[in-house]
Amino acid sequence: MPIPVLICDDSALARKQMARTLPKEWDVDITFANNGAEGIEAIRAGKGEVVFLDLNMPVMDGYEVLKTIQQDDLPALVIVVSGDIQIKAHERVKALGALDFIQKPVSADAISNILQEYGILTIALGEEAVDTPMIEVDLRDACQEVANVAMGRAADLLAKLLDVFVLLPIPNVNVLEVSELTMTLKATEERSTVSALCQGFIGAGVAGEALLLFHDSSFKDMAKLMGLANPEDRNTEVEVMIDTGNVLIGAFLNGISEQLHMKFSQSHPVVLGRHCTVNDLIHDNSEKWSRTLAMEINYRIEDHDIQCDLLLLFTEDSLPTLNFKLGYLFE
Q1: One CATH from 3.30.565.10, 3.40.50.2300, 3.30.420.40, 3.40.50.300 for 3-124
Q2: By mean pLDDT, which of 53-67, 86-100, 304-318 is the weakest?
């Protein structure tokens, strides 16, 4: 009798990749959930004896799913599959009852090893090959999942350097006109003023700029975490912004390059504006951005008043190459 397996992830690409990496000989009945609430509903309906669970999802995230399973004593063996590879994320999901943790992008060997380690695969071996449901994936969804993995790499590096836990959002990815980019940047403005750093990048057929918006209220707390003297000094603020940009932008681009098998060269960081409104920042630099593929991530550090927004703005000319590079992920 097939084992009911639930794949719970908001990304269509991630669900497709997860289903494809399950052992071909495993006799399972696969159900998909787009968020944690749908996942809990499926588990209650007996469709999730084994669950592959993402952490960053809308409606109900993976942590909330694990808490509900634990509190309600639901019959589910949960393996977390996430781009958030912070050590504290591992510790938290294990404390909430997860069997194990697999980092994205998943590999068939990693899945098979864990299933065998916990005796799940041996019990589930059957004569029929697993029937993988068809899933349609578009460019935006693929880019969002790539950004999700890269976001996790950058957060992990920042967490290790500062000994903190970085709270991660769901990446926002869209192809935008400059007017729409203006609205996107304005939406990040929760405080009165920001300071901004820009760094160009280029690869084979792909180019763009990484923009780091650092909320001004974050400087003092971040300087203390970095162990810098005179946290309120203007030169210290620039140092904080450049150091943070080097970590987040560099690790994010490395995360993308690993997935797309391409290398990026980066220019020197340039300070775009200091203690200005987002509206002023856009007005002063609007000529640099036209139609663009934008990846937007808001990083926050737990228990600290630190928040910054990272935007990767790919040129319109980069879209054909990105489509080609991402094509193999659709298949």
Answers
A1: 3.40.50.2300
A2: 304-318
Alpha-carbon distance of 169 to 296, in angstroms, equals: 10
Counting beta carbons within 10 angstroms of the beta carbon of residue 155, is it exposed (0 to 12), middle (13 to 18) or buried (19 or more)? buried
CA distance linking residue 307 with residue 300, whole number of Å: 5
Tokens read off for 156:
């992990």
Chain length of the chain: 331
Spatial CA neighbour of 56 closest among 24, 23, 85, 96: 85
Token couple for 194:
């920001």
The DSSP bridge partners found for residue 213 are 196, 309
Whether residue 308 contacts residue 189, with contact meaning beta carbons closer than 8 Å, is answered with no
Amino acid, single-letter form, for residue 98: A
Per-residue pLDDT band at 330 (split at 50, 70, 90): low
- The pLDDT tens digits of the residues spanning 187-227 come to 455 556 889 999 999 999 999 999 999 988 899 999 999 99
Residues of the chain with CATH 3.40.50.2300: 3-124
**Phi-psi label, residue 119: left if phi above 0, alpha if psi -120 to 50, beta otherwise:** left
How far, in Å, CA of 226 to CA of 224, rounded?
5
pLDDT in tens, 234-287: 889 999 999 999 999 999 999 999 999 999 999 999 998 888 877 777 666 656
Alpha helices in 45-107 (DSSP H): 62-72, 87-95
- Count Cβ atoms below 10 Å from residue 160 Cβ, excluding itself: 12
Overall fold of domain 139-330: Chemotaxis protein chec (3.40.1550)
- What confidence tens digit (pLDDT) does each residue in 84-134 have? 999 999 999 999 999 999 999 999 999 999 999 998 886 555 445 555 566
